[in-house]
Amino acid sequence: MHKLTQKEVFKGLNLENIDFYLLDTVDSTNTFAKEKLLNKDYLVVISEQQTAGRGRQGKEWYSPNAGNIYMTIKFKDKNPAPLSLIIGLLISEAMDSVSGQKINAGLKWPNDLLINKKKICGILIESEMNADEVEFIVGIGINYSLPKKESWWGEIGELADILPREKLMNSILQNIIDYKENGYKNWKDAWEKRCMHIGIELKALSNNQKDTDIGIFKGINEEGKMLLQTERGLKIISSGECSIKGIY
Ligand code: BTN
């Protein structure tokens, strides 16, 4: 397996603004990034494997040393758009620009990416207060190859020729830095265009999975909240996740 190098991952990026760690192994790139001070505008942590990779809602993120992407970027963000949705959008766009093709990885609210109805990328965003400012810890996991997997997990190993992981990481970092510096004007339209379940029936689940609502997904509002047409009217759902019949 081709090991990641600083030259390839950070090509064209201004390293005066970025502290970075390229590791062979770590418990979790998010946990590691949380423990480090943000001395420059960005802190990037990348590892070949994680021994305690973390997913959303306290789940484990399976992280073998198999050529996958485990990357965390920490920064302060004052843009008004919801970071959680924006990051998924920026990754889907990075896949198209690196490959030069319309890969169109579909967005599943709030921030999973799917190809052929399988989850190929997960995003875990955490935040911390530091001297009255919020620091975001954005963890990205993209699977190229999984020795064992659940039925809904996908891999993009077959696309590795057109989507080399170092180029994909580089493009994701470029996109995030560009977003942080310049914002993203039409992010809501762009997100909805890439969403794979507009007009489709789904089940919205609250964070503790105790409350559920079934309805037709109508899109999102300016805060990134889900608009769900239920039998009892239009509901606005701010957090949690969703489940789609036949997908996950
Ligand atoms: C999800 O549950 O969908 C989110 C998965 C996020 C996984 C990534 S891998 C890099 C970073 N470090 C972690 O421990 N988790 C995130």
Characteristics of this structure?
248 residues; alpha+beta; BirA Bifunctional Protein, domain 2; SH3 type barrels; 2 domains; seven-stranded mixed β-sheet; five-stranded antiparallel β-sheet
Description of the molecule:
The protein has five helices and twelve strands. The protein has 248 residues and is of the alpha+beta class. It has two domains: 6-192, Bira Bifunctional Protein, Domain 2 (BirA Bifunctional Protein, domain 2, 2-Layer Sandwich); 197-245, SH3 type barrels, CATH 2.30.30. It has a seven-stranded mixed sheet with strand order 1-2-3-7-6-5-4, sandwiched between helices. Helix 3 (83-99) crosses helix 4 (165-182). The structure holds biotin. Biotin (BTN) is lined by residues 28-30, 50, 53-56, 59, 61, 70-72, 112, 122-124, 139-141.
Overall average residue pLDDT: 95
Number of strands: 12
Largest sheet: 7 strands, mixed
Tell me the span between the first and last alpha carbons: 31 Å
Lateral strand order in the biggest sheet:
1-2-3-7-6-5-4
**Integer tally of domains:** 2
Helix and strand run: HEHEEHEEEEHHEEEEE
